[in-house]
């Protein structure tokens, strides 16, 4: 039967040697995550002038009555870079709750006490946040622990399973030694991760972007508040910043670069792959609040004469399609925009029908220098999902999608 | 060169907000009352204190904004991380009590200023309380900040009413730089009160959070510091005109004790309706403005420090403690004013005691935090700056403890 113990109770427990003599009180406990992610590996005991370090296998029993050892070969504690000290490194610090998708502060830690034949072991079970843990912390040492346990049940608990906790550690060396991965963060929705990043301090933000996969970083960065985007990119190594921008949609990347100082933005551009670099640079030429600055180059254009069947085959043969694809564009041999077709219509028509016959009437498009306000108006008036943008020679140059409009409206 | 200047200006505009707003809220109804009393009773004599007060204000505010910009964390966050939960809890508890009494004082300011416009407090206080609640809960930080910045402009009313009163500018100029110390308990109490009302615990928390919320980083810190300094100066310029107005309107015709800031507005009547109206409008603006900021700042600070969900972008069920505490502070704060025979003066004295007890802890923790290398990196205080900040803190603590002693004497019966 599992037995629970809280860090608030563990601290200050008296430690007794084989003959039952008290050698000190518990000051801190530490994990060695490289060996085991949850087992308490060292118990730091303060007695005389120095702290002693007790290994997990030197312990016989742990309970509210104290810690009894089964081995007396103790070593003095010396700071070790591979240990995560629960009081020093975790208590009162911020961590990320990957399941609840938010930043929380550690108020207490719950251990599972595992009774083995020879010795007891503590495993970190949950990190406690919320009122119940605050209650325990405040009363700790003031009233007996058993009394706290009895009375706390009136307050609803609030804990996060240890497996969902993502510890924040800005120092990359130490992160490796403590085996801290950001796997949990990479599995999150980028928009949720973006919210989390916004809540953190600059060092932690930098640490996250340095370590997570460039693609996740790109998706996340696109969702972060523009002011913060700039400070994150500036804090990263130019190379990493370029990697992330390459993964972003060109127009998002251009928006971010616009927020940076010219010098920094050019340094980053220099590091980017030629193809992505040109695409972004072209978009950088436009005013942010014009059609050119809002549009994406990610669209599907087909020759105006194709049939429905040919169009579908063409789509099937492509490696990748824009995620939000809902409209196909038709262009003449010179690249001039001649029509727009709702994707859904293709599925309801016979394969031999010319696609042009399905085109929307009238064809609505805007020049590259059209203002943001006018574009928003058009989206509203014609209930658009996408709006094509054309250059001076009426060639299709990009598309603006509805999500861009929503972002623009929210920013006002 | 001009391009560089323009760039600097753009960044300055971008960081504009936290310092100016904090400093202006500092001239809330309590502040206006203190300055009015000073002017009404002692005329131009207390003006000299404004320059040292400005300097003390700058020293403390600068440290908070620097910590905010460098660490990206609020002051209560840092206290929690470095000094633990129990310290934070008691600090937050004292802060809630102190700020609550301040909120009551703001509603009192709203009630008495609007009564000069013949609006009953049973009408004005509930409406303003609801308005305060909605403004923040319904708005985003950015839009709210714009409203607040606009409110800062309304403080000009004090400058205009100060000019309308036609005070003795020569005397005002002389006493602004000539320290006068009279060993009269009333005078000393007033001087201490002026410092006490200028530097209070809540503003350190608010400013640092506002800097963080605004996303100001160490890189923009130079401009941000300028903004903080500007804010401190503007505050004390406004204070100068309040003292001068009351000195010219009341003291010049016979020194007098006034009970509340509305009395001062009434006393300005002989100098034309405008002087009086502007003074009362200013009082309303200041009280309402502070009534918006204080509850919000309190809940943010408490929730951050104790680790509860917070933020106006959260829904009620996501951040229940945040919203409940916020609502309670406003509702009870407003209700107290409508309570017949509520011992308001005693409560304000009590709030000064709590503020005074809390302030030394806040300031000492601030200096300890700002000197932590792990936290501030190359942005820690220099040795010289430490000397200045420690001596400022010692002066402030000394004065506040004196204020506490006097207040306790007044609160105790007999």
What features would you describe in this structure?
The complex is a heterodimer of chains A (412) and B (414). In chain A, 38% of the residues lie in helices and 24% in strands. Chain A is α+β, with helices and mostly antiparallel strands and 412 residues long. In chain A, strands 2, 3, 4, 5, 6, 7, 8 and 9 form an eight-stranded mixed sheet that branches. A four-stranded antiparallel sheet of chain A has the order 1-12-13-14. In chain A, strand 6 (59-63) and strand 7 form a beta hairpin. In chain A, helix 12 crosses helix 14. Chain B has 414 residues and is mainly alpha-helical. The mean pLDDT of chain B is 82.
List the topology elements.
The complex is a heterodimer of chains A (412) and B (414).
Chain A: E1 3-6, H1 7-10, E2 14-16, E3 22-31, E4 40-46, E5 51-55, E6 59-63, E7 66-69, E8 75-76, E9 84-85, H2 86-90, E10 94-97, E11 102-105, E12 108-115, E13 120-128, H3 131-139, H4 145-152, E14 159-161, E15 165-167, H5 172-177, H6 183-186, H7 190-199, H8 202-211, H9 214-223, H10 226-235, H11 238-247, H12 250-259, H13 262-271, H14 274-284, H15 291-294, E16 301-303, H16 308-317, E17 327-331, E18 337-342, H17 343-347, E19 366-367, H18 372-382, E20 386-390, E21 396-401, H19 402-411
Chain B: H1 2-15, H2 18-26, H3 29-42, H4 50-71, H5 75-83, H6 85-115, H7 121-138, H8 141-153, H9 156-164, H10 169-177, H11 185-198, H12 201-213, H13 221-249, H14 261-267, H15 273-306, H16 320-338, H17 344-370, H18 373-376, H19 383-411
